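Before going further, learn to read the protein records used in this course. A complete example follows; check for yourself that the lines match position by position.
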Amino acid sequence: MSYLDELFSVAGKTALVTGAATGIGRMAATALVRAGAVVMIASRKGEDCVRVAGELNGLGASGRAEGFAGDVSSEAGIAALVAEVRARTERLHILVNNAGISWGAPLESFPYHAWAKVFGVNVTAVFHLTRELLPLLEAAASDADPARVINLGSVMGTQPLAEDAYSYSASKAAVHHLTRILAIEFAARRITVNAFAPGPFQSRMTAFATGNEDQARHVGNHVPIGRIGAPDDIAGATLYLCSRAGSYVTGAILPIDGGQSVQHGLTLFKE
């Protein structure tokens, strides 16, 4: 095995990626399968997960995927997902809490229930699912190779930016803070907890703005580095945090945003 292969290997690890039938979740799951992991893919649409797992298994990669239904929007749904995972493995090396929802409406008409619904999936489920899977994560963890949790935050949780998605932006800021809290609490258990804070990527959630190449180019023009995110941008970050290369990193909110998190319109003395 080459030095690079050894440093970034996830071969033989078992992972769960929620919301992995589309978008960033699928990008992360694809990277893990291609790098040799066994990846469980779960979302509300079980048939989509079965189909995506089949497509990933058709890549001829060294890992493999299993797809099934998993709904993190309720306590009962999380319990069912945990039972499904327990039936398939006794150890979980990697948990990617990717499932998320958004809600957009003008300030004047933003609905009350859109707060509980969005926070339920984006924050409550991250906490509850992670806690319920702790025994499996601890069983996989060691001093030399911690278990890994990656939560999906957003540049909208880093910057004071809503664009009519008030509960979404606030929920992602909560994810970032929860990530830091769990990182310090889980350190003694040899489990790292980090978050991605992505900028714009093509996904079901952003399809209204990035659905075709012209739209994606338009959005990319607002990004300092000049483009929207690509699958390899998620793949590299995933393999870094889940392999030996990232075993000393915990509590990080990793910006994958082409410079948006440091973008500002401020000037002091220069015109």
Q: What stands out?
A: The first strand starts at residue 14 and ends at 18.
